[in-house]
Amino acid sequence: MINIVIAGPRGRMGSEAVNMVLDEPAFNLVGCIDRKEHQIPALAERGIPVYQSAEECFYAVQADVLIDLTVQEASYQHLLMALRKKIRCVVGTTGFTDEQLEKIKSLAEDTNTGCIIAPNFAIGAILMMYFSKVAAKYFPDIEIIEKHHDQKIDAPSGTAVKTAEMIRSVRESKQQGHPNEVEVLEGARGADSDGIHIHSVRLPGLVAHQEVIFGGEGQLLSIKHDSMNRKSFMDGIKFSVNQVMNISGFVYGLENVLELE
């Protein structure tokens, strides 16, 4: 039985994670962290406590794994506290700075504690990123369009940033488009990641969607993934909880614990 704490149980991802953990026979939800609420009826009915601070929670309950689905500022502090107490972490929060990721990595390695941060937990999205990395060896002209709900704070998405990172590992630096290209409206060509243009769409009705478009002479290749609801992320979170129990140190990206090759 794996004892789990969930940070962010009222959020759209967090509430799905609560249901997943409660339905999984091998998981035991021992507490939740919510900075605004200390009583959530659905959890209170099951006798599951909700704490307004991570510090209070980690001292009150015996946790094996923290699932953090909050926002960058809160999540960063939660992870530092959890790792110092050798509580393993599975994190779906995005928007961490490079410095924050380096601090988390260093602390996970120093404490010999497993920590998985995944910009996306949908298995299909992981395959989309992996296939994009493979395609980039042959199609170096690439643009990324990512679409998310209008309440998402960070842009581009963590998935788009991670996709560009994976592509850059196999693709030589290249400036795409006309060398004298001019943006009539600033930002029209999107963000620029080593010549790869990334476009972010934020609209109500969307959940999480990404298309990677590769252009070649006389042909186009599109690799696309759509999450229609947040249940699409739960298999990846469940898999990560089981995996993090058997690793030491820091992993960034679910593709690094999946058997893709």
From TrEMBL:
Sites where the protein binds NADP(+): 46
Pathway(s) where this gene product acts: Amino-acid biosynthesis; L-lysine biosynthesis via DAP pathway; (S)-tetrahydrodipicolinate from L-aspartate: step 4/4
GO biological process terms held by the UniProt record: diaminopimelate biosynthetic process; lysine biosynthetic process via diaminopimelate
Main localization, broad class: cytoplasm
Keywords, in A-Z order: Amino-acid biosynthesis, Cytoplasm, Diaminopimelate biosynthesis, Lysine biosynthesis, NAD, NADP, Oxidoreductase
EC number: 1.17.1.8
UniProt entry tagged with the keyword Methyltransferase: no
Positions contributing to (S)-2,3,4,5-tetrahydrodipicolinate binding: 149, 158-159
Residue span, Dihydrodipicolinate reductase N-terminal domain: 2-121
Record's GO cellular component terms: cytosol
Pfam family for this entry, one: DapB_C
Binding positions for NAD(+) per the UniProt entry: 8-13, 45, 92-94, 118-121
Active site, UniProt feature: 148, 152
Catalytic reaction equation(s): (S)-2,3,4,5-tetrahydrodipicolinate + NAD(+) + H2O = (2S,4S)-4-hydroxy-2,3,4,5-tetrahydrodipicolinate + NADH + H(+); (S)-2,3,4,5-tetrahydrodipicolinate + NADP(+) + H2O = (2S,4S)-4-hydroxy-2,3,4,5-tetrahydrodipicolinate + NADPH + H(+)
Segments forming domain Dihydrodipicolinate reductase C-terminal: 124-258
Broad EC category: oxidoreductase
Subcellular location: Cytoplasm
An example Gene Ontology molecular-function term: 4-hydroxy-tetrahydrodipicolinate reductase
Quaternary structure annotation from Swiss-Prot or TrEMBL: Homotetramer.
The family this protein is said to belong to: Belongs to the DapB family.
Its job: Catalyzes the conversion of 4-hydroxy-tetrahydrodipicolinate (HTPA) to tetrahydrodipicolinate.
Protein name per UniProt: 4-hydroxy-tetrahydrodipicolinate reductase
Species of provenance: Ornithinibacillus halotolerans
